[in-house]
Design a protein that fits this description.
The complex is a heterodimer of chains A (about 650) and B (about 200). Chain A is mostly beta strands and about 650 residues long. Chain A contains eight helices and 45 strands. Chain B has about 200 residues and is α+β, with helices and mostly antiparallel strands. Chain B has one domain (about 5-185). Chain B is built from six helices and five strands; from the N terminus they run αβββαααββαα. Chain B has a five-stranded antiparallel sheet. In chain B, α1 (about 5-15) packs antiparallel against α5 (about 165-190) and α4 (about 100-130) runs antiparallel to α5. The longest helix of chain B is centred in the middle third of the chain and has 31 residues, at about 100-130. The chains are: A mainly beta (about 650), B alpha+beta (about 200). The interface of A and B includes residues 554 and 633 of A.
């Protein structure tokens, strides 16, 4: 402990310098003008140009913003329960949060990634990863709902995820935290944490995505016990490869801020997924225990189903040649980003004074020439000098992430110096820089990690807000900044607050999304087993202590709205079907004493709330979404009698 | 009748097939909260929404003011109309085959009479829907009735209702026009041949 304290003291001066740098920017309204206002103004009733999908970070959700206005349009519940819609509370949706650890009501959402066809965003789905309990979600852009979540086994901290290959063949994942895994079947082990170097390992996973979107883990690659941080798939000439940054090649297990910052270079793992997929197809590697849960919406009933999968295929680079190579990269690299041509691989060496840019063709040449400087766990380490395209000098302090425009420029966030740096990819020279407020993490250009970027706007996703908005106490929303990148000089256009902590974001032109929008669910296609598709089908059925209420909701009444014969100790299930068949007429359902949430039921949908009354009396329920002029009248009563009462079940509306 | 006019008469009859494929009348409603409009089309045998589910939504709205739900199954006229048009088509073709000018006029007379009856009937239905309101309606505006206009636009509370003929109606109108024109042309033709009995009657 004493030595640790000493080390901490010795880095204090450095911390002070970093602190001064990040707090030093006090100038405020650079670049704001009437001109900027006109560029972000979206007139009443008009639409934004882009849909922006911003991860919610520690709120576990995915937020939707319009760009360039920065208006917050919607929040899609993904990895966390959402009491406002009943997501994760209703009987239908609870199973979406099932994992091999049981029901997990919260998640840490990181990197949204739009599905792609031919290297371009296609508007079918957006994927997003969860770090804490490793998972990947698939969200449909037809109804903006989480349609599937798959858990990643043999992983701890699913950070380097959820990046797609150019035709969405795969979405990838990698473990941020290596954990002890036994050599035979990768099972977590009860060993001393000090035995890190001996026992800890990592994995990289490739999840196959079917044409309908169904996800399944095709294979995992066993990796040395580093921390795998971020990723991007190759494209064009580098299609078939994916790149994963790693840090902690020191394999430290305590005080990583010091102990994992020692090596001059860590690694980018270049994975030949096409070759690995071929091995997997041929049955190479081996099947190991790898219990993981997959949850998906059954579209005919609207219910989420869960399945537990027991095994997973693992490929070992010590046994299978040519699936992984290490590219030495300074210094604890964070982001790894492949330019639109697919030729260059930029790394955000967060402690590095340069941005290293690797060349894919040089990498291939080096592999062919076996230009290796060593080997780690059977993985050849290529020589830095033989793969390097160039180093961008003076890129700001703490470079993290890079996105690209359609004119041959790259844009990198510098966290510590709180700026965005624009550089020429071919020449690896800085051409412009702009201050942002404060400390950007990721940045996003619509299509900026695809083969076809739309180089009009850039969004800086800043980690520190401080004084940018009216203060809201100690905690406040994060701050995003919209920057015009259409000209030679970057111009700041707009600040807008973002909920949770957006890590990465993606954006897509509205045309690719609007056309496929679901306005409501068709009642005739609702095959929910407890749906009442008309008031005639509404009923209350007792089965022992369980009571099923088949209820309908239409402007402005429930059927039934008077129910008697419920007893203390009953488990009552309200299956509420919204009979409306029009856009934007949801009904809500809430009942006094419910220990879960409300339901927010879309037209044509059936959702179920479980209710366990504890005391006799008459308890009201009502519609929680102002649905119509007589919304306040949309209410009803349930009579609860003592357990031993002989009150018969009766129900109705309007008698 | 001249062959050419007999062909035209056959065309007049056959044009009426169009009413089986296109709505005859439409009632559209506009309100701020219906930016895309909401409305219904009246066809030869049905009433349906301009968009899917419009009729359900119109009935949903109407229940607040106590208007009876519009249920096409319960309107007998919609069952009769297909047969009336079938009768007009078959008889029109027969008249074209016979080539008798007087029967063209009789056919046209029946057609016009039928059309007028239809409009009166439509007005009466509108009157009934608009006036015979459920006394327990949630929304009661003193003195307010909700009869849609027979033709044209009318402001009903926040809704601007527009009632207009639809394509099927214009098929019928064209058919009537052709029949009238044939009758008139035949008259001219017969005037040009002195001594004709018919021309004297017409004169």
């Amino acid at each position: 402990m004493k030595t640790n304290k000493m080390t901490f003291r010795s880095i204090l001066p450095a911390l002070v310098v970093f602190g001064l740098l990040s707090y030093g920017c006090t100038q405020k309204q650079l670049g704001s003008s009437d001109d900027a206002a006109a560029k972000v103004y979206v007139a009443p009733g008009e639409y934004d140009e882009f849909y922006g999908f911003f991860s919610g970070g520690y709120n576990g959700q995915l937020s939707v913003y319009g760009l360039p206005s920065g208006r917050h349009l919607y929040t899609i519940p993904v990895f966390s329960q959402s009491a406002s819609s009943g997501y994760g509370y209703s009987e239908e949706t609870k199973a979406m949060l099932n994992t091999s650890h049981g029901f997990v009501p919260w998640g840490d959402a990181h990197h949204p990634e739009l599905s792609q066809t031919n290297g371009e965003t296609d508007g079918r789905w957006v994927f997003i990863n969860e770090n804490n309990t490793p998972r990947i979600a698939r969200i449909g852009l037809n109804d903006f709902k989480t349609q599937e979540i798959i858990e990643i086994p043999n992983s701890a901290g699913n950070h380097a995820s959820s990046f797609v290959t150019p035709n969405t063949e795969y979405v990838s994942a990698a473990t941020r935290f290596s954990v002890p895994m036994d050599d035979e079947d990768l099972q977590n082990m009860d060993v001393s944490i000090d035995s890190y170097k001996e026992n800890f390992k990592g994995t990289i996973s490739f999840i196959k995505v079917s044409d309908e979107g169904k996800m399944s883990i095709d294979f995992q690659i066993m990796m040395p016990g580093f921390d795998y941080d971020l990723s991007h798939a190759g494209k064009g000439p580098s299609n078939g490869w994916s790149f994963f940054t790693s840090y902690n090649s020191e394999e430290a297990n305590t005080l990583l801020e010091i102990n994992a910052s020692k090596n001059d270079k860590d690694f980018i793992a270049a994975v030949n997924w096409e070759k690995a997929a071929q091995y997997a197809k041929e049955g190479k590697g081996r099947m190991i225990p790898g219990e993981h849960v997959r949850n998906y919406v059954d579209h005919s009933t609207g219910e989420v189903k869960s399945e537990t999968l027991k095994e997973v295929r693992v490929l070992d680079p010590r046994e299978l040649e040519g699936i992984v190579y290490f590219l030495p990269t300074p210094k604890s690299p964070h982001g790894v980003d492949v330019d639109p041509t697919g030729q260059y691989i930029a790394a955000g060496g967060k402690l590095s004074t340069v941005i290293p840019v690797h060349s894919f063709s040089k990498m291939q040449q080096a592999i062919e020439n076996e230009d290796y400087e060593g080997e780690v766990m059977g993985i050849p380490v290529l020589k830095y000098d033989s793969i390097l395209h160039g180093e961008v000098e003076n890129p700001g302090l703490g470079p993290l992430h890079t996105e690209f425009d359609d004119k041959g420029y790259a844009y990198t966030t510098a966290f510590i110096s709180s700026e965005i740096v624009k550089w020429d990819i071919e020449k690896t020279e800085v051409v412009d820089r702009i201050d942002v407020y404060y400390s950007p993490g990721h940045l996003m250009i619509p299509g900026g990690d695809s083969q076809n970027p739309d180089g009009k706007y850039l969004v800086a996703l800043n980690k520190i807000t401080k004084d940018r908005y009216l203060p809201t106490g100690p905690e406040m929303f994060h701050s995003a900044q919209l920057i015009d990148i259409s000209g030679d000089k970057m111009k700041l256009l707009l600040d807008f607050p973002t909920e949770g902590e957006p890590h990465y974001a993606q954006a897509i032109t509205r045309e690719k999304v609007i056309e496929n929008q679901t306005r409501f669910y068709k009642l005739e296609e609702n095959n929910h087993p407890y749906a009442a598709k008309s008031e005639k089908q509404a009923k209350v059925v007792r089965d022992g202590n369980t009571v099923h209420v088949y209820m309908t909701a239409i402007r402005s009444h429930f059927f039934p709205d008077n129910i008697e014969g419920i007893k203390v100790g009953d488990e009552v299930y309200f299956h509420v079907t919204n009979l409306e068949q029009a856009w934007d007429v949801p009904h809500g359902f809430a009942i006094k004493g419910a220990n879960n949430a409300e339901l927010l039921i879309m037209p044509g949908e059936t959702l179920t709330l479980k209710w366990e009354p504890k005391k006799p009396g008459v308890l009201p329920f009502y519609c929680t979404d102002f649905c119509s002029a007589l919304h306040q009248e949309m209410q009803g009563y349930v009579r609860v009698s003592p357990e031993d009462s002989d009150v018969e079940i009766t129900y109705g509306t309007g008698q | 009748m001249k062959n050419k006019n007999r062909m035209w008469m056959a065309l007049a009859a056959l044009l009426l097939i169009g009413v089986y494929f296109f709505p005859i009348w439409s009632i559209g409603m506009e309100a701020p909260q219906y930016p895309e409009g909401i409305g219904m089309n009246i066809t030869v045998n049905d009433i349906n929404g301009k968009h899917p589910h419009d009729l359900e939504n119109i009935n949903g709205l109407n229940h607040y003011i106590g208007m009876k739900p519009i249920t096409p199954e319960s309107i007998p006229e919609l069952k009769i109309m297909p047969f009336i048009f079938a009768f007009l088509i078959v008889s029109g073709l027969a008249i074209a085959w016979m080539g008798n000018r007087k029967w063209v006029l009789i056919w046209l007379g029946i057609f016009v009479l039928f059309a007028l009856t239809g409009l009166v009937d439509f007005y009466l239905w509108g009157y009934d829907y608009g006036h015979n309101l459920n006394p327990n309606a949630p929304i009661k505006v003193p003195g307010m009735t909700y009869q849609p206009p027979l033709i044209g636009s009318k402001q009903l509370l926040n809704i601007n209702a527009t009632s207009m003929p639809h394509i099927g109606f214009y098929f019928a109108l064209l058919s009537m026009g052709i029949a009238g024109w044939i009758w008139w042309r035949e008259d001219d033709a017969e005037n040009e041949s002195p001594g004709s009995k018919n021309s004297k009657i017409a004169a």
